[in-house]
Design the sequence.
């Protein structure tokens, strides 16, 4: 009697969702928040290029998940390196909340003041504003100095960043999405700023979401999303997620002592 009932209940269970996949013949590299760590970024770029060359023919694309700038020491150089990388291969840049604050702060003093409190001071130094000049200046004067020093090419590159990229079953964003809201109805601040209710949402989204923005010591892999911001600017660990078919791998540049090493693993291991 019990066994037929068990079979009946099992038959009514929702079948498990298939593993998300990127389109056949493609390979995707998603890079988490760099935050001014040029040293880690350069080593990770080299590792991605080696991996792509060794992995066999595929149309490969790199997605930079935003927050290239702030907090770390070399924001200007990171922007320039990302811009140059985009001329060498398929690189898609997503807009993070820090890029939003930076660009808006060049026009709005109130936003600039907020930006400078959240890592923008290091960005100002990276564009050639000395500590002495910065310390003596008003916010208005810092805005004038930044406007004079940030190259037009950098502004255009950051302003051209997208809010999201879709690849097969995957959605790449900086911060996340508002649950249960169609992609076309999401607001810009959801893509660039959201934490909750996105992070705690347990149910499937229309796409499996790959995101940065929220720092975790290791990748944050859930049934409906994977967060790859491993806090490069203070942890010394910059993460790239590799997607091919239904496979997920990790390539990480890790700063230990005087050296930066590459660690590779399977996501979820």
Sequence:
């Amino acid at each position: 009697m019990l066994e037929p009932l068990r079979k009946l209940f099992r038959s009514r269970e929702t079948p498990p969702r298939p593993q998300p996949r990127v389109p056949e013949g493609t390979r995707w590299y998603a890079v988490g928040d760099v935050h001014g760590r040029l040293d880690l970024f350069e080593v990770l770029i080299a590792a991605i290029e080696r991996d792509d060359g060794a992995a066999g023919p595929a149309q490969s694309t790199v997605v930079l998940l935003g927050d290239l700038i702030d907090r770390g020491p070399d924001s200007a150089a990171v922007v320039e390196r990302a811009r140059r990388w985009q001329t060498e291969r398929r690189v898609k840049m997503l807009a993070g909340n820090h890029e939003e604050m930076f660009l808006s702060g060049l026009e709005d003093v109130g936003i600039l003041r907020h930006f400078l409190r959240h890592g923008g001071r290091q960005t100002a130094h990276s564009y050639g504003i000395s500590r002495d000049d910065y310390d003596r200046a008003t916010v208005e004067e810092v805005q004038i100095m930044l406007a004079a020093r940030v190259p037009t090419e950098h502004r255009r590159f950051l302003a051209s960043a997208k809010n999201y990229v879709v690849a097969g079953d995957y959605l790449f964003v900086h911060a996340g999405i508002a649950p249960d809201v169609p992609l076309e109805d999401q607001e810009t601040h959801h893509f660039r700023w959201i934490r909750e209710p996105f992070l705690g949402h347990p149910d499937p989204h229309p796409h499996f979401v790959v995101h940065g923005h929220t720092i975790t010591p290791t990748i944050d892999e859930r049934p409906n999303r994977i967060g790859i911001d491993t806090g490069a600017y203070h942890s010394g660990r910059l993460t790239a997620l590799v997607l091919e078919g239904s496979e997920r791998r990790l390539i990480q540049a890790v700063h230990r002592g005087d050296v930066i090493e590459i660690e590779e693993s399977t996501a979820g291991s």
